[in-house]
Amino acid sequence: MNAKESPLTAETNRLPCLSALDAALSVTTREFLCAEGASAVGVYFPSPDTDALRAALITVTSTGMGAIEEVPLTEDIFPSARAYKYGKTAIGHSYDHSNLATLSPFLYAIAAAPISCGNEVFGTLTAYWIGDRVGNVDHLSEVARQLGSELANLTQSGSLPVPPTVPAVFSADTDNSLSIRTPIIFHLHRLAGLLNEAPNTQAATKLAIERVVAGFGASAVAITLIDGDRLIAVGAFGCTHEYVKSLNGTRLSASTPEAKAIAKEGLTVFTPGDPRTSDRWVGEAEGIPCSWVVLPLTAATHPVGVCSLGFANQSLANEPLVWSSLASMLGQTLERTRSNEARYELARNLQEELLPRYLPQFPGILSVNRYRPASAGIDVGGDWYDVIELPDGKIAMVIGDVEGHNAEAAVVMGQLRSAVRAYAAEGHGPAAVLARTNMLLAGLHSGVFATCCCVCLDPETGQAQIATAGHPLPLVRTPDGKFLQPNLEVDSPLGVTSDAEFTSGELTLTPGTLLTLYTDGLADANGLLTRSAFEAALSRAGLEMESLADFLMEGSEKFPTRKGDDAALLLVCYEGQPKFIQQNVRGLKIHRRDLQGARLARHLLRKWLQDWHLEDLTDDAELLVSEVVTNGLIHGDSDVSFCVRRYTDHLRVEVRDSDPRPAHTVAIRPSEDQEEGGRGLRIVMALATAWGNSPAGRGKTVWFELPRTAHESHAASHFVGTDALP
Fold first, then answer.
1. DSSP codes joined into one string, 148-184
2. How would residue 179 be classed by pLDDT, with cut points 50, 70 and 90?
């Protein structure tokens, strides 16, 4: 490049396959690297979806593996972050941050200069040197300013570059073999680190496909795993639909390249035009030849799957050392993630079996519940909730949290839930229930602690007794917007000492009062669900309980410290004395094997509506109930709880089941539109004035409302408030 040429307009005929910008940046970074003896030089631009800088291009030598691809702007320890934020050259070392130190065995000195023009900063030019001394920082700043001037011209045309997920990596080596292998070694090194952190099979597959396509230049990729005596496809890119369909479910005894690669436990390279790998890549339809590498993935001494790679560019097709490294790291990762997923599924199923299938509904008390498993890690937590009908007509409400996120926590949770139910059924008050449960947990010698909050409510009087063992007190909101606080201290958690004492406090609830019991997955950094957070959810939902529960769960997701924790919510509305309420509430429980369940629900609904003088709602209500109950019994393969509530201006129907999968609207062919059942939410959406489809603990609740006055429109679809009962 002569002195009159700017970095982005230099002749780039040596790199004809690249975009003009990438080629020019490659030339510029290579020239700086060679002039200053750096090990790597990268160009970083702001990420469009995260608060970070991402490498658009990195030029490396064989010792430049420590260059990082993404720099969080929230951490000033990174020189690139400081240079971008403050517009000044910054210097640092790899030992300044653990993320830098773990990327390479070498000690690096790092210098970053802002790529800027005037007051606008576009990104950074960052260089890495082995050792603790940087090169000519003034030279780095000058090159960065030249890049900034050129990028300023690009921004005027609205074409500021967006960094890719995987950066373009180029070699500064002049040796042809090294110029090919050095970027591949960089990508293998980086993929190894990413796969080590992959939480599940889906994430690992996505990372591998992104890297081999963008980094290795693969035109097509298909990854399969061994499942019994077959191969199951877990990810693909650039492959024809027919190929993926034929690959998924292939028997290991078949004569396909993938099955044979597993049998021989060795990679096979297929040249372009080989009939055994024809019609696999979508580009073959345009007459572009493609070679294939079929690579068995191994973990220890056994195969776990196959990675099939297609290359329109054959330069990497015959690189056995590259593929053996990829096979080993990807195979071991997928073996780990599958093992973890199996362990997680076992613990998750155990936990779900220990939670209530759905909560019982009682006259005078309306309750909804939510449970969200931990979103981080591979284990499950010990959160639980329960609503218990006591022999004297009172209702006990319980929520608790066992420490830890593993199968032991789930087992202890089940033991405590059973103990609380048994002690409450004996007639003990909340404080005595906690004392006895505490002695039980201490006697188990499990080494874990638990928190628990018990509320005992008398529906006839509204009197509530509350006791808590290390657990946050419930939020209690009256109909006029006030929050009640029981005169009660939070006692020690369960299991700390066997002789711990527990006290209870009392509150008197008026009809319309809301009680919110929750675990720390819904709490802020101080461990509390705040009144402001509750009011924010209430303002969006009105007094519709299912919506309120959804918005409370949604609001808790904004706390980063709680994203790795599971969360349980028990939301209760005290509606008043049962003798005034029960005349407006009807219910039915239907067993999952009861083939006449939907017919019985329709029959009882017709009778209830006649008793309430709401015959004009019979046709619509029967149709909706039939559809929703059928969905729960057949598609959910679950017991169903069916509840109907009469309000002053509308009828509300709730159908609960224990199938965790949400109900979905499905397209029905015209020939099937007259069949009985199966249309579900399509009918609900068409006829109900308000409806919802919400997760509820182990299962879900589908509810809908119909107006009591005939002139009200059925076309609206919105959430309404729950009025006082007549």
1. HHHHHHHHHTT------SS-EEEE---SHHHHHHHHH
2. low
